[in-house]
Records
---
Amino acid sequence: MGDRVYKTLKYQEIGHYRILDIAADPNDEAIDSRFAEIEELCDRIAWDEAARVVVLVFDGEIPGVILRSSMEGSSLASLVAGLKLPVIAAIRGNATGIGLEMALACDIRIGTENARFGFPGINDGCIPSDGGTQRLPRLIGQGKALQMILTGELIDASEACRIGLIHRVVSSGALMSSAMQLAQEMAEKSPLSLSYAKEALYGGRDLTLDQGLKLELDLYLHLFTTSDRSEGITAFKEKKKPKFEGI
């Protein structure tokens, strides 16, 4: 698979992080391949023992592309959200409609100055279809999500950052370097801790507080059985940088 040529995206493996760059404007023939190729890569990354962080790069406005399989009802956003590894979204320009739904499926979102964000579909008689009505209120609260979706208003990058929709605002020229720097910093951490923290955060959302606390404690205690935790303790005592192996 190392020499696999993709029609709708570019894929790079750099150290312990992976970059998946979705082509902004694939040709008509390639559009049909988009879902299959991203599904293949998500599966590849899931089995990649060296992978610790994913950087998903995409154009926030994705015209004319159906990201949901009409045959099976499969969701591209769900493929991304289903990855156990942290996923950083590097969003080129505006993020609206399907593009914003893709961003919401990621864990950390980096946007660019002068970009706008929202779900304007209500103005054309439609609603979000790939998780937008579910993920947006969980992220920014029910009230603000209702306002954005029911009015179709677009908010600027500053406001999106203020309400937690995106986490960092950079210039267009600094988008990739910012995402790659963050990915490198995160990739130096224990991959077990990264995946367990993500599991606790997402897994606890629909649990009672007591159930969520139990999940958190179970995952915390399980880390004490790993070599990474021992390495972290040793490195702290010896005042050196830990070298995590993911075991």
---
Amino acid sequence: MQPMTRRDLVRLLGLLPLASFQRPMSSPRREPRQGAHRRPNILILVFDAFSAQHTPLYGYRWSTTPHLSRFADRAVVFHSHYAAGSFTTPGTASLLTGTYPWSHRAVNLQGTVLDAFQDRSIFHLFGTEGYHRLAYSHNMVVSSLLNQFREEIDDYTVTRDLCLQDPYASQRLFASDFTPAVQAESLIRRRGDSSSSLVLYEIYRLWMSYRERRLNARYADRFPRGLPGQEDRVFLLEDAVDWTMRQLDAMPEPFLAYLHFLPPHDPYHARKDFVGRFPRGGAPAAKPSHPLSAGVTEEWLADASREYDEYIAYADAEFGRLLDFMEAAGILETTYVIVTSDHGELFERGIWGHITPVLFEPLIRIPLIISRPGRRVRRDVHASTSCVDILPTLLQVAGIPRPVWCEGELLPSVGDQEAAADRAVYCMDAKGSSRFGPLAKRTVTVIRNRHKLVHYLGYPEYDDVHELYDLNDDPQELRNIYSSRRGIASDLRALLSDKSVELQRRV
């Protein structure tokens, strides 16, 4: 008999009824440190796939986020804030390391940062200064990154602990090999492993389908489209918010908490009281199809956009509960609270979602709202900023030295500094390239002031093509002015050329 491999074990265990339907237990209370602390607490709240362009703070027509607007009344609101990547892996890795994707190389769909970056994360830097560090995410892609930084996190709550159902065994059985193990499980669930037993697979699929139907039936009155979740994991955002309140009430101080919630990421399963809140036919005018379009119909995109708005409103309501708690508990008087996302979402030009090589504004411009301890008034910042700026800014407010490898700059107004003149920020998609070789198949954009240059490289149908937009005169990005604004195009191309060494290097 051949010995059982880890891959065989993952396949076998995937057939067992590992899904847990128990509600998460309350965490044991930890006594806060005695005495006043001199450094502020840090709370980072990430709502996955949250586009700034679906938020009234940034000019959206529907009232999707009244509670976020209420929070903004006592915070700094950044109006031109960009993700460094167009999907979860690079966007999150850049936020956690203060570096762009060409440096950390977490560029693939469930990639991780280079080994050298394991001690270059926000968790490592704050841990060296005595911060208690907590992290959680509903998203298994984020869990791959958090698992990589696990030794630097004091309180790491795994995804399954806040799920109603999570059949993945990887996080429990293969902590040291979490990413390849969870990829193997995902492949089996998608029937991508042709060597697996179809009989065993069908037994597993039917068992999981039965359990999922029972769970959805239990909550059908509250969630008519099904429970929130992703790839066989289902959860209640309400549970995660309740858990967050308990953690904030009990954590030692000073603390750094990174909490990454899946809503409003698809599937857009809003609670019943938000379904139908926004009218049909309210979608903006259709835009021309892009050469890299996926061919999704305008009607489908309009319906999906409306359901996305409903899901945002649901997430905002739960954020409102958390905000009420923080106000009542005095947490806002001692804590920097950062609300942001890892990337946005697209519903135009025949493209839906965020797994696409294009880098239009709804996909990469994300909310950033930061409240400092005791702040009472709102301030608006319109200068371009990047998610790589969050780490160096938080280091400054905590009095921690900034490392030389950090690529971000200080955010205007948070540390009382002003915006840098002619600041350029970048975003990249290179999921089709190897993390270890030249990033030959990629889309890179640079934004400086009002202009945005996008360079597509390595796509057979759209190779070595540039697009240039004036975001002031053409915020919908309908007119490519690359040929008519040669001076501006040349200046921005030079900025991208400065990054060519990083883009072409092998690691």
---
Amino acid sequence: MIHFKIIYKLALGLTVFFYPLALQAVEITPFQTQNRSPVMQIFGLPSIGSATIVAFKKAEGNIILDHASNYVTDSNPRENILLDGESTRITLEVRYGIARRFEGEVEIPFVVSGGGFLDSFIEGYHDTFGFPQGGRDQAPRNRLLYQYRRDGQERLHVDKTSYGLGDIRVKGAWQLYQKMEGKPAALALRASLKLPTGDSHQLHGSGSTDFSLWITASDGYNLARGHLTLFGAAGIMAMTDGQVLRDQQRNWVGFGGVGVGWSPLRWIAFKIQANAHTPFYRESDLRELNAVSAQLTMGGTLALSDRTTLDLGVTEDIIVSTAPDVVFHLNFRLKF
């Protein structure tokens, strides 16, 4: 009996240790996230997407969760803004290879806005590492209040918890170039059309119709230990006039992103990615509205099987006050 237990434990340990070796090498793709500020995520700013499209007659599904904690307050003689609250954005995304070099995609988001639960945790984190609180520790805990005033007039006010459908997007992509052998590389042209299906009064949508066009690329390198992938994208987005700060909204925005991923083992990859975009609003001296924004996401990908992966990431605002303090990102991907 003792020998049997020893053999059983040894076999179990070897199975757990060697099982990941049977997996295909994990694919390194960009994080499917963008600026989750309550006054930015309402627009159709797309995640930069993969440089490779889904194979013909194949499909891929993603369930994406972004939980963002916002706290920023700023003012000048003409304006003041307060963005205090948390939002959860759950997105169902389905991609399908409709032809040899083309894919179609539908993205359906569900948005929850509320006071949240992270204030105490973030204040403690800032205290532990000596980071400034920026007034967060003086504000009411777990409050929801998005407010903007200009020239004595209140132009934005949201203070009630809400949930509902966001703005649905229809996307497409064309594979311009792809090399699989040796040093893999890919280039794709992507497009997105965002429809005004979300409630703009609750900041579930912008009320505008947005069209984006961008190019995304990747380049791979085989290393002595695993493989490395560089990726990036650049594009432009055009927007009709929406319902949120309508007279200050811009109609054109540029965006892009760069990142790198390293997979030391077949079942795991570590990634770091920077996203940036030009301002969405004009006629304001507040950086929360009228400044270039950049965010940094760090995390990685776990291969759960040959067809399923899990992305985990944490996003920080590297241009302070232009994006949420922190965003926790999760993406469950299934190929079928």
